[in-house]
Write a structure and sequence with these properties.
two-stranded parallel sheet, alpha/beta, 4-stranded parallel beta sheet
């Protein structure tokens, strides 16, 4: 999530929240709502108006031990899609229902670090 604002093709606006957030202020202003994850202990207790914003709600996936607490949030927050780095089958093996849409997304190094990593690789191979 920290690297997402570095992508010049994406405009990211963060909304710090307390125990309650009125999502109606987002209506017609954004393409999606991206939730950090679907663990109720890491998001506001109440997200008002989220079912009426008229845009996809995409959520990261919390830890496996929180699946039972997270499943009710699917309807509560109208989550349309989930993402994480793990394979799709693992998402369902953890206990998420098969009708929950999930996409595995590769998480990796940001481009400056990739360049540094390639340079480091050359340096290391030159020494061996």
């Amino acid at each position: 999530m920290k690297a997402l604002p570095n992508n010049q093709d994406v405009d990211v606006v963060n909304f710090p929240t307390g125990n309650e957030f009125d999502a109606s202020i987002l209506k017609s202003k954004f393409d999606i709502i991206l939730l950090w994850n679907n663990n109720p202990s890491e998001l506001p207790e109440k997200i008002l108006g989220i079912k009426d914003v008229g845009m996809p709600i995409i959520s990261g996936v919390g830890d496996p031990e929180g699946v039972k607490r997270s499943i009710p949030c699917h309807d509560k927050w109208k989550i349309d899609y989930y993402y994480q780095y793990m394979p799709e089958q693992l998402f369902y093996d953890w206990g998420y229902p098969r009708d929950f849409k999930y996409k595995s997304i590769f998480f990796g190094l940001e481009s400056p670090y990739i360049k540094m990593s390639s340079h480091l690789k050359k340096e290391l191979s030159a020494k061996s």
